[in-house]
Amino acid sequence: MAIPAPALRAETAHRPSAFARFLDSDLFASFRRSKLAMAAFAATLLLFAVAVLAPWISAQNPYDPAQLDLINANLPPIWEAEGQAPFWLGTDDQGRDVLSAVFYGMRLSLVVGVLGVLVSSSIGITLGLIAGYAGGMVDTAIMRIADVQLTFPAILIALIVDGVAKAALGGHLDTDATLALIVVAIGLSFWVQYARTVRGSVMVEKNKDYVQAGRLIGLSAPVILVRHILPNVTGPVFVIATINLALAIITEATLSFLGTGLPETMPSLGTLIRTGNRFLFSGEWWIVAFPGLALAGLVLAINLLGDWLRDALNPKLQ
């Protein structure tokens, strides 16, 4: 018997929203029970907010020459005798406010990290879906490529991709092209984890009744993969993406510190650490110390959040 239209509308109107269902979920209950997860989430949210609001909360734009004054060069932090406001964490040799530089550097590091995760997850999820669903020679070829890449450290893969691309393009890259190259290099370094995880989940899901039913009614393989299988394998992907965000930020900082990443005109945390390292033994310790602490705090907060998410989504720990 069909449900009357008024009753159907009333049932739809009283259906809880997705946000309400999340607040009533086991995942949110696990989050509320973990003080460490809440602290990590608060720290991560604060650092993301600082990065987004950097142009409005910074004392200066540290990369606008019109706002720099050499008279303010090499000032120590405010709590030391020669410290001056508003340079709370001191200045560098160009008169740049270190705190403002950290805000701007964190902004670029997060942009590179997030874009790198998007690239790596897109490649890995796509190849994992294809390998797990197609099987046979396609699966073997993709997994052997993944196995070969796993024999090299991620930072080495990023260095190879970056070096080959710069050699092929003659080394003449503008800032946007340099940023895109770093993102692609990081993306190609971390796709394997997504591919292997998604492949394993797809091999389990493709034998279930709902996939067989989709085949019987004539749905194409891409439709089955994207609409039906993919939503059921996203849990592990979120965990990998959270942890890989921290790894992507570290990889960008390492590349920049080694001089093969972003140039000094693009203030990522790695660039700031490389610049400040030149002054470490001359007494201006704050130029490298505070960007290093900001990088460590950002990576630690994201890693703690990823560890909690991994445990919360693991059914064996429930």
From TrEMBL:
It is a multi-pass membrane protein. The keyword ATP-binding does not apply. The chain crosses the membrane at residues 36-57, 108-133, 145-165, 177-198, 210-230, 236-258, 279-305. Residues 106-306 form the ABC transmembrane type-1 domain. It is found in: Cell membrane. It comes from the Bacteria. Keywords: Cell membrane, Membrane, Transmembrane, Transmembrane helix, Transport. The keyword Cell membrane applies. Belongs to the binding-protein-dependent transport system permease family. PANTHER family: ABC TRANSPORTER PERMEASE PROTEIN (PTHR43386:SF26), OLIGOPEPTIDE TRANSPORT SYSTEM PERMEASE PROTEIN APPC (PTHR43386). This is Dipeptide transport system permease protein DppC.
